[in-house]
């Protein structure tokens, strides 16, 4: 069957409208998406599991009349389960981890009519800010294949940027939606803690630091996707503040005059890369031109203290995942089955106590209160998503024993994005700028806990004032 040559002209909502009107069939959209993956994925390695037969069976069995009926969709290969398929966490240790049930979020995607036809590449256990797992190989940035697509949702972002589909599943435990959105020129919203469900297997990810959502080309796709996925499931340990409206409706509403702080600096006081400074200053000017009150200011962050507690929480969760897998396999995890950095993180966890874990959770809750106080003065905080342009592949090597160099570059590249995972605030990367080398530079906006609505209103205003959807990588 022929594909659909106008595929690029539509976002996910646009494609769904064509299906609803009978102008296109889901089979045609799927064929077009598959054709694009088959043609371009060898160049970028964004999709590592192909569920084409499952997708065709899904269509044949009849799709629900959901908001995204017939739209091709990809899941991230991290935590999210799809019955009958493998979720490997980017690791050889989980390479045969076939699910016997769906995650709650997967079920919500299916109920929305999305057609799941594969899974995207992720660094092992989501531990890196670049997607270069040893087992599956690196995902390349469609804007320049020598550069990283970001992590840990790098495969998802590369797939959307390359035009395989208009929106894809992603998750963010330390910047993992916003980092690849910035690196690949996409919109990426990290929702409020517990806005979307983690069940039925988990109550929270990384002690509540991780949130699942999507990367997209349009703001409205992200908003509509949150409409069909947000809200607690039965048995969830806690939930985000309830939102009774429609996030999609918020995108077209005027945000009003907002009080916005901004910084171009890292928390340690050093200046970001010149391209990033230029981008954030231009964003601040755009905001002022749109009528917002903008002033230079930033909340104080003790990066070393933050990193210590973040390491405790992530390390404990990584060690637990390895121990759980060892129990499932009935044997120990072999050294060659995990990457050097993963081993290091799990070994670090063995040096921390249960009291350290409690101290870390207390720390992130205190950070949430501290930032809530900051946002009594400011509606939004603007900062760089990344403090450097997208780095080259190989610069951060999870198999290298030079841990000092790895951590130093990570801190220079992504110095503070994880703080908003700790506080649980909604935070988004918006693709407003590209540098002279044609690489995207994202602007990160963070709002009050529970207030995605204001961020979506602002994002809609920015998208109208300085559109980006027409910008496509030559790949």
Automatic annotation (TrEMBL):
Record-linked InterPro entries: Amidase (IPR000120), Amidase_CS (IPR020556), Amidase_dom (IPR023631), AS_sf (IPR036928)
Molecular function per GO: catalytic activity
Pfam family, one: Amidase
PROSITE patterns: AMIDASES
Spans through the membrane: none
Span of domain Amidase: 28-455
Role according to the record: Hydrolyzes indole-3-acetamide (IAM) into indole-3-acetic acid (IAA).
Similarity-based family: Belongs to the amidase family.
Protein name per the record: Indoleacetamide hydrolase
Originating species: Parvibaculum sedimenti
